[in-house]
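pasting for the record
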Amino acid sequence: MKLSLITDMHYRPSDKSLDGLIADIDGKETGYDAFSEYELSFTDESFSIRFIRSGEKDPYSNEEKALIEQGMDIGARDGETISIPSGSYEFIQLPVLFSEKELPKLVLPFSAHARRIYVRLFKENMLETVMQLLIN
């Protein structure tokens, strides 16, 4: 599936790995949002995936949600200095959370053409968290 982000998705920098973000998500509020960014490289001899950075975002306020629903870009909040850039991505939503060690086998089918992978975690409600792959 293709996903087109019209605006950047802003986050505050985090020092957590993907596994650290996953470990903490149960204690977060509904609407919590986080990502880890990876760089892929593929040659005839090898495939590698390298962690670049991660970010976190607190849930939107009711006022922010209302603006977003109206199609407004609310921009970055204080401290949100990194982003998933706007653009076109291959998009996969996964029903379960995978650990960082399982990531290479999830993204290997995209390694011939992809350069960046964003793994996004979103806490939809008290019982459900989704993992999304945005592949560029």
